[in-house]
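Recap from last week: sequence in, structure out.
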Amino acid sequence: LLLLASAAPAACLKPRHASVAMSEEGGEEKDPLSRVYTCLNKLMSKTKQQLTEAVMTRDQIVKEMTQYVNALGLDLSKAPVIHVAGTKGKGSTCILIDAILRAHGYKTGLYTSPHLIEINERVRLGGKPCPIDRFCKHFFDVWNMLKDSKSGKLPRYFQFLTLVAFKTFLDPSDPVDVIILETGVGGRLDATNIIEKPVVTGITKIGYDHMNVLGNTLDAIAREKAGIFKSGVPAFTTTGQEDEAMKALMDVAAKVGVKGSKLIPCEPLRVDPTTGKAIVLGVAGEHQKENASLALALAHTFLKQDGKGKRATSESMTWAGSLYSHFSPEKVVSALKTASWPGRCQTLALSNESLGGARSNLYIDGAHTQDSCIKAAEWFIGQVNGIGASEDRKGVKVGLVFNCAVGRDCGKLLTAIHEKFQEAKIDISWILSCPFDWDKYSTKTEDSIEALCKRYQLPVPPLVPVDSSPQSSVSMKSLGPAQGTRKDTGKWQKTILQFWHALNLRKSNICVWHGQSLPKDTSKEKSVCELKYETSAQNVIDTLKNKASKDDISATHLTLVTGSLYLAGNILKASGFKI
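Predicted structure tokens:
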């Protein structure tokens, strides 16, 4: 709902210089993105009423977006758009489409959400985040043009950024050849759904997410996602859909009258047809083979319909059971192999054993639904077993960093992860949880540990020690209002840690809070999991580095970071990773 949030019009001074802008207090902000964030925060929901108003009908969304597009002088009628919706994997699918088309000589524009570190990541040109100066120029062009329009009304957060993306992609001085659009939430009521005649549409795996907006069943959610289907426009999906979701997607496709009046399912891409060997993807995870197959179908449909002739010499070849004649096979293989999507099944080396201490790797995936957390855990376990096979797991220690947004059922996500670790016979040596670097308004309240334990029939763990709340070493001002404002109480994160404790109590495993002593009767052979609350992502990184530095150089520390894309972004930023 945040992404569709409404806001009252607010004044925002025009930038005086590309690298110097005025803050709200009248002082200069040297970082050009600072003023962008100041303006964006005005478009966010801050009351329950604003969140309620954000849910509008399809006609209202189209009417509003049409007014904004007209005020900006944009013509979307002939925009070459590939439109992608779904619950899981739509970002990965879009990044693969982008890579394939760039490999065939196209200048691509890619719009995704959310961003991990900086806002300009949402708008990509040629596979890279839009340069900050260019992003800021288009951002304030849109802001000032709408402020100066007849209504003077500003859009909601996600609507506004969608308009900035269109403005960037359709810049007459440097337009893109193809626009790849990822929906925000749903599809039918999404701001991106103003495109009436895309070249092709695709739906990734449907799952349970945003149920307060999209519905409580796979049927209802699938129908919302299928709202991007258009009459006469080809539509594809993956064969991995649950029966309930697939039936709903097929029904909508037939009623809308997509090309051929039929939705086309794509088999997972498992084999590289140029070699006959297993396909190699730059985005890790077994589930990415479904996304790769869908990306191939969408990219090929665009190539087949495009008349610019930019593709390299093509060759007919069968990919995952489908014959494609407009691809250069070598370019496709290269694109799939080199495509990257940070924060999704990403491995990041945190320290170097040559500097002393253990080798420490982070395995980062922004999974935030039950199904995606299972996939992330399975991927991570595969990595652990791969290292264990070569090192017999001697000296290999495994940890978890977890946080999820208030309103999500942390019990469901943590239970899924815990069960996977239990099945793999992997002991967790530590679990850390920290708040996001910002908070967004939510109508949801935090579940108490008592309520969670009752829901999942778990023993209630001991109270959190009073001295388990460390002081943050990170300045609040240094975090920046990237997507909201920071509210650091730690209550929710400590509940998350307590729930993990409860899961372990059921299995008679031992957990101990950082700084607390082990029970006197603890066997040396018994595994122990340390629980620790951290006040920031930076403190998490510092703690993990400190753990590694104190361990033997022959040891290996492997830590899964999951539960939220926002957590993934915060950890990446704290680690110094650049997108």
